[in-house]
């Protein structure tokens, strides 16, 4: 029996020129000589084909994020942190994208969520001349890349809405190189810039908005050095609403007399699944035989994490949160986020199991791993100061695995101690500093409804971002931007507001 199917398409030319054709090669060489192909080299190093017919936006974004060497902060497969389409799910469920694709605004939201610096423009918010300037700027540099959202029909191609990165620019012919991520359909091709602009002006019927383009570049530093908000679980919608909408109303309606009452009001009403919302990030690696020294990169990352943790624990708010959580009458002990007893051996064992699962590429929900023992070790990084590493022996059936987890700690004393010791409680990110970080990240207007002026002044001083050290300030602003993005998603406003989230 014959099998029906499509094998590629013939690229309509004109208006496009096949990148691999004689004329396409000539344009490429001329553009290289004029210096407007600098962004091409990194993009082509990470060029990928979309894995699903409707994944053009996700493929374009993951390609650009990898080209910019932005660390996703979570693993792809095995131990590797790498952007893949399957990881870009914080603004739209993947199953929905697989079925109908993704809108321009939601792809912008995904780029923000991934930690990139993003400038986005619809064609009714820009001009052809501005677009040309932006394409030129990114073509003479490898520090930024352009993703275009356009309608294929304007280029005489089959299909409608599509996303692809722009790989370069030919000044003399005023043509852009479109690195089409649907390589199973069309090859990379040169198109007149004015025609691409026209194609971006078509209206997306799903949103009623014109298409456009976005400039994506690296942030000043990697986002989420120690803390990050997780939207893997659908419960994030209710939690984001609680933090951004309900907390200000609670504080305005209640008569709070001191900081403890403020904390009690917020914490005792936390959604039951709150513990899945904010995470702290630990480094994981296999325990190798022989040389146990840390690499300079590992040492640098854990040192910065430790500094962030130290700065959290030095805030005035942390002291209030710690006192509240340790209070005998604190009812927050019944809440999932704070129900762990912050017992270091227990947490170390749990994270070692997670680490073993990550290294094996197994879902953490599998429950196949059990940590038999943990031990706190101090390893050196090229003769520098000691770094605290929790080593665990993890059992999976009859096999054993050695796992190292680089725990950030601000109070660890040099030496080595097995996990049975209780002297290490509180040396790792725990409920008190996680909650402190999240409270600091709430928008400043959260507290404005507090009626008691003395309490308002005190809490305002405790959460004032400008009073924080630089590292912690950046960490808090990153969390705050994440909160604003999640609220924008929750309200379905990402296609209306393309701007960077407020800090």
From TrEMBL:
Residues 1-221 form the Peptidase C83 domain. GO terms for molecular function: glutathione gamma-glutamylcysteinyltransferase activity; metal ion binding. The keyword Protein transport does not apply. The keyword Transferase applies. It holds the Pfam family Phytochelatin_C. GO terms for biological process: phytochelatin biosynthetic process; response to metal ion. PROSITE patterns: PCS (PS51443). Transmembrane segments: none annotated. It is an enzyme of class 2 (transferase). Its EC number is 2.3.2.15. Keywords: Acyltransferase, Cadmium, Metal-binding, Transferase. Involved in the synthesis of phytochelatins (PC) and homophytochelatins (hPC), the heavy-metal-binding peptides of plants. PANTHER family: GLUTATHIONE GAMMA-GLUTAMYLCYSTEINYLTRANSFERASE. This is glutathione gamma-glutamylcysteinyltransferase.
